[in-house]
Design goal:
The chain has three helices and no strands. By secondary structure, it is mainly alpha-helical. It has one domain: Chorismate Mutase Domain, subunit A. The longest helix is centred in the N-terminal third of the chain and has 39 residues.
Length: about 90
């Protein structure tokens, strides 16, 4: 029984490492996009695009997390990405 728990935890640890890597890739891409938007004089925040991102996440949600959970997770990712973009904003 303990071996089985250890195996499940190891699989979760691998999954967590992948999630962190993917979230950081996403943030890097968003920071690059922010540079382009700044160069073009466009607003960094696009509420319509954020709604598209949330809708896409929900459309791809096969569970077991419900839509409210997925929405909260993606809202948090978007918020943290905005924070990183602001930190990288030229002085």
């Amino acid at each position: 029984m303990r071996q089985e728990i250890t195996e499940w935890r190891a699989a979760i640890d691998v999954s967590d490492r992948h999630l962190v890597q993917l979230i950081n890739i996403r943030a890097t891409l968003a920071c690059e996009l922010a540079k382009v938007k700044r160069d073009l004089g466009l607003a960094l925040v696009d509420p319509a695009r954020e709604q598209e991102v949330l809708a896409s996440a929900l459309q791809n949600n096969a569970g077991p997390l419900d839509d409210r959970a997925i929405t909260r997770i993606f809202q948090s990712i978007i918020e943290e990405t905005r924070r990183v973009q602001a930190d990288k904003e030229p002085a």
